Amino acid sequence: MIKIPATIKDIARYTGLSIATISKYLNGGNVLEKNRILIEEAIKALDFEVNEIARGLRTNKTMTVGVLIPVFEQFFSTIISSLETILLETGYSVVVCDYKDDEKLEKERFDFLYKKRVDALVVVPTSLRGCDIRKIVKRDIPIIAIDRPIPDYECDTIVVNNFEISYKAVEKLITMGHRKIGIICGPQNIYTAKERLRGYIEAHKNYNVEIDEGYIKFSDYHSMESGFKRMMELLEKDDPPTAVFITNYDMTVGSVIAMNEKDVKIPDELSVIGFDSIEIARMVKPPLSLVLQPTEEIGKAAAELILKRLKGDKSDFPLFKKLDAQLLIKKSIREIKC
């Protein structure tokens, strides 16, 4: 026997409310709390399913937010989880696309999400520029950049204090007596990688510590293998560094594997500050010192800003919000007596 789907009229009969009130609620409008409870009870009891396509045509809203990220990894997954938790509470769902660090795919996936008629877009850009967006976007929707700004495009942006926290990490090593400090950093076409290297350089400059260019290693942000190779290169130098600052999660994991393979004693032979790898830090003895990014806070701030813009509130636009990362010092650093 075929089950006939419940309709708004059925909900009206069940609740005793008007069709107008029920329709207002289903289309995202505010209704009295007692009416909301009645409607939700009826929806559950009658197994009512909202026709999202029809609702989207009526309201010009799909109740979806598109998210574009370079890769699926712990850092971005935590942000998305935090973002989604808040958006789901207000009836929005999240459509996530990754572009696998591919410039062509990045633009294609951005175009795909826009054509899905999402109500807002959250973007972690690599090669995406303002000119690319202007070619695609023909309607006014909120676009929020997280982790990295979009060059030549005016939009809300949420980043971490990459320069300041990297400066602080390297400063800690310098004040502990280290003068031969290595860094494993990401590709310099990425904003965060450039800012973290800039912090490293500025700390050396301000403390009048000469930089050995051979101690600066460039890695692939999203590859443990690349982090492994760069750490091996530092460890195998004729005059290896006494300390290394690793500026990303995957590179930290790869570096730890390299140090284990070389049986490096931390901190007796090498002082180490890693990035975001709290689980790995607990597995290493002694525990690693780390830069910890506020991933949940990034997701929460992005969700709240999206909801604000979707309500038509454009106060403080374009917002540039910089969140503070934390430097967690453990026993992976030793002091060097001058």
TrEMBL record:
Domain of life: Bacteria
This protein's UniProt keywords: DNA-binding, Isomerase, Repressor, Transcription, Transcription regulation
GO-annotated molecular function: alanine racemase activity; DNA-binding transcription factor activity; transcription cis-regulatory region binding
SUPFAM superfamilies named in the record: lambda repressor-like DNA-binding domains (SSF47413), Periplasmic binding protein-like I (SSF53822)
PROSITE patterns: HTH_LACI_2 (PS50932)
EC number(s) per entry: 5.1.1.1
Entry protein name: Alanine racemase
PANTHER family found in the cross-reference section: HTH-TYPE TRANSCRIPTIONAL REPRESSOR PURR-RELATED, LACI-RELATED TRANSCRIPTIONAL REPRESSOR
Domain HTH lacI-type, residue spans: 6-59
